[in-house]
Each structure stands twice: as structure tokens, then as C-alpha cells.
């Protein structure tokens, strides 16, 4: 069983997947920072100092705080501002991945166009004459 596990782990696809997941997690953190630290403050400044992360309403009568972190301590809250931020994160990440896939596809198409066409097979009579020549050369 240990040997089978070792064979499974050592396959290229599993290692590629692991590397992809690790890079994807790191890239997700970059996008989170881009949205939370750069885009959302600009959007907030444009719309009069709005902070989407603090958009919520309490689901309990005990919630009276204006800050989301404090309100969560007081009771259940519906944090739709955080949801808006996460949706924006997703849209940015999806757009970047779309651009990356599009670039790779364009590169593949360009490489296929530049690849020289394989030599066309000679006609049947030329193939036959070549075989006859090769047989006579061996004798």
C-alpha cells in the first residue's frame, strides 16, 4: 500500500496539481490585497467614504455597533458588504485567469501556425520505386 501511495504521489499530474493549488492560494491572497487595500478604498473615496466591509444589518436586537467586527460580537449580522467585496475579488480573479488562458491559447495558435507542415507523403508509385531500389541495393 505504501508503494502504491508513493507511485501515486510521484506521478507528474499530482505534483502539477499541488503546485497549482499552492500558487493559486498565493495568487488569491494577492487579489484579496488588491481589492481590499487598493480598489475598495478608491471606490469608497469616489462614493463618499463608503467602506463596503462595514455594510451590514443586525439580525438581532442586541446589535448596535457601527463596525462589523464589534457587531459580530454582539450578535448575528447580515454582512452584505463583505459579500460585495468577495464577489469583486472573484470577478477580478476570474478576469485575470481569463486573460491568462486567452494569452496561452493565442500563443499555442501562433506556434501551430509557425510550425512547418510535415512533408507530404510521396505518391504511391514513388514509394513503390523507392522500395524496389532499396531491395536491389541490398542484393
Describe this structure in words.
It is a single chain. By secondary structure, this protein is mostly helical. It contains five helices and two strands; from the N terminus they run H-H-E-H-E-H-H. The chain has helices at 2-10, 12-46, 68-74, 80-114, 124-138, and strands at 57-58, 77-78. It has a two-stranded antiparallel ribbon with strand order 1-2. Helix 2 crosses helix 4 (80-114). The two termini are 58 Å apart. The mean pLDDT is 82. Homopentamer.
Average per-residue pLDDT, rounded, comes to 82
Q: How many alpha or pi helices?
A: 5
Tell me the total number of β-strands: 2
Q: In percent, how helical is the residue content?
A: over 70%
Strand order of the largest sheet: 1-2
Approximate shape? elongated
SS-based structural class? mainly alpha
End-to-end distance: 58 Å
Order of helices and strands: HHEHEHH
Low-confidence stretches: none
Q: Major sheet: size, sense and barrel closure?
A: 2 strands, antiparallel
User: What is the radius of gyration computed over CA atoms, rounded to a whole number of angstroms?
Assistant: 30 Å
- Percent strand equals under 5%
